[in-house]
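Hey everyone, long-time lurker, first post.

I ran two proteins through the pipeline my lab uses and got sequence/structure pairs for each. Pasting them in order. The first:
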Amino acid sequence: MSHQADNKLTLRRDGFTFKQFFVAHDRCAMKVGTDGILLGAWTPVSSATRILDIGSGSGLLALMLAQRSEPHVPIDAVELDSAASDQAKENVAASPWADRITVYAEDIVSFAETRSATYSLIISNPPYFPPGIACGSAQRDQARYTTLLTHEALLRCVHQLLMPEGLFCVVLPVQVAEHFIPLAQQHNWHVHQQLHVSEQEDKPAHRVLLALSRQEKECANSSLAIRDAERCYSTDFQRLTKDFYLFM
């Protein structure tokens, strides 16, 4: 049996094992997924001096950005759901960056109203959809639907918390981004970077990663296919995520 196979046999089933940390997500409504991993690997961090993760869930994005950013950069993670925030705290405590990440079990609206700290980088994998068919779990409804946090409310909170020259990075379905971008522009946000993601080289994009700022700048557009024509992980996807995925 190969060494790789031995490693696979030891992987825990209650979460996701990365190269430098483990994310338990069995008590979280939204599990670790490709959207979040792409956002955490793609978001520009070189200029970050203080980072905020809105709707942190299991703590995935906070942990990914802790791995990628300078060791002196503090990271705050805000999560409304108590079960998810408790699990995020456990994931952070078990990680190499427990001294840099603080998890708050709080609504982002009240957090924004009561905090004086501002951030150079804010990241979010937010609820995508307007209220629809119930998921069968209030916890999962909260994570999926914009009932408790509309995109307009999210933008207002980010405006309160982001430094004037800071970046706000988010991942959205293509159809949702078509409404989100004009809404952001109405509130004087500008798209600095845009990555269109497709499942395969010959498929249309299904996700968009956005980096927004209040500073005007020409938008840099790019695209990425997760898999190539042979259904293997593409070179671009491997290059972007190789510091995180095991066996890549």
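...and the second, right after it:
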Amino acid sequence: MRRLARQGVASPMEAPLAQAGAPAADARLLTPRFVRVTAANFFFFLTFASFFLLPLHVRALGGSERTIGLVMGTSGVAGLAAVLVIAAVLDRVGRRRFLLGGVATMGLASGAFLFVHAIGPALYALRILQGVAFAAAFNAASTLAVAFAPATRRAAALGLFGVSTLTTHALAPALGELLIAVAGFPALFALAAGFSVIAFAIAWTVPEASPPEAAADAGERLAPTREVLSALGTVCGCGVAFGAVVTYVPTFTRDAQLGPVAVFFLVYTAAAVMSRVLGGGLGDTRGHRPVIVAALALFAVSVIALAAARSPAGLAGAGLLFGVAQGIAYPTLNAFTVDRAHADELGRAQAFFNGAFNLGTTTGSLALGHVAEAFGHRTMFVTAAAVVAAAFMVFSAGTRGRSRTPHRV
């Protein structure tokens, strides 16, 4: 049985998909199909990142920090539940189908926010739909990106693919704040739905990576080794901090009078994009483990810096560190994990990785909201940094002395 951690085979992150990818000798990253799936992901994430400002809307409707955490976390919980199904069927049903279905559902749910004017069942129902849509579209898009990437450059490819995500983290909140100031939240929701329409049009041109028949047998299950479990636990810990930051930075900056939240997101995004463009391939050349260890240490420091920010300059500095750390840690952890999967398990492996990160972001949104409510934002960010420090120790211990050659397909 083909398993996620079988020795001697490289993960989808560093090996080309035989059935669907270019030949192993072809190290080009910017192939037409890779560019198309990346572009579709960009517009999809413009929709997704527009809802980084949803906490401000919830507060305007009378919600507390706990309510904000519940509203934001509902999407994550729904996404986690959806991943359990997606991981089992994505490779067999087809990645393109999930991509199109997820993008369409996200657009419809985002547009429906125009008709929700109070905190209640309708709001939570739409967040559930968004969570399911996100799980379907992002897992499909990232799996296609992995499949389209050359075997020896998967960390670099994931770094570039991630740029399509990261840039939206700055663009959507910045544009959203301007729209809200001029026309209110309805304009934000309408624009978010429009981005999904563009994403769907581009996604329609993306080819399937491989025939569903090539996927693993439905009865097969991944059997991660200690190092893979350590990587999944680590990305989950990073997700806790990431979820806490993106959920509560908007209200933190307003309460602490640190200026527009766009300052943080713009600096964070610029730093993350540059680190992925310039350093996204470090894991391919220097080895995944040392790069991940260094990035995790910086990740913890960046969240501490955010907790200590007392001025717009301090906020920007924290965003800079956070962007560099996240920009390097995420794609390298992704490559490390998926390098242990076979070609017909790309979707399943990617779903597990994304699911672990989403579990963390959901936990950060829900659990740390109570910490923020009881002890304040700064204590909450320190708590998030402690989780990253724990993730650092988990990865360091779980992968120490593990030099086994990853799976190459």
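Reply from user beta_strand_b:
Welcome! Quick read of the second one: The first helix runs from residue 32 to 50. The domain at 32-211+221-398 is CATH 1.20.1250.20 (Growth Hormone; Chain: A;).
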